[in-house]
Amino acid sequence: MPASALNTYFYDMKLNRYAKVFLLLFAGTIILSSCHTRKAVMKGEAGEIVKPQASIAEKYAQIMEVDKRDIKNGRLYNFIELWTGIPYKFGGIDKDGIDCSGLALLLEQQVYGINIPRITYQQAAVIKRKYENELKEGDLVFFDFDGKQFSHVGVYLQNGYIVHASSTKGVMVVKLHSPSMYKYFSRGGSVKDDTVSAQGN
Known about the structure:
The protein is an alpha+beta fold. It has one domain (54-200): Alpha-Beta Complex (endopeptidase fold (from Nostoc punctiforme)), CATH 3.90.1720.10. It is 42% helix and 17% strand. The protein has a six-stranded antiparallel β-sheet. It has a two-stranded antiparallel ribbon with strand order 1-2. The radius of gyration is 24 Å and the shape is globular.
């Protein structure tokens, strides 16, 4: 092979190598930036309904088997996204670990601007009971695990799904009718108006 052709061959190889490196760096930048834009952010004020981020709406629409347009409360689903996977810790109420009543308390407070008691059985005492088919987003749902009345609490979302702090899997979204949950289901309902006003004063 002539020297000029050989030089051209090595030059082309070098260009191809640089092009591959550039493409990898470019792809990495795109991936990192897209991950950053999908990060959940609590926007607006407690009690305010804000439009959810598109990626969050898509994710929870798939999880709960609903249309993306049904995911309307951006603060709620961003709160869930920020807490999902946080481990269970009895008495915990921060990102190091949280229990079921702590999660319910923070969610009601930060998403809806509602103050409820800290302990599960006290939370059960401040709800207006509803039939299961009447449950709405933000309602509290209670379970009798280990033969103990109101020993666990979750928050109803929609289409039969709830969010709760599982003692084994941490904060997660599950079906109310899942075998591990529904046989222990005790009652559900919305926080009474007089509780909200009394604790808000």
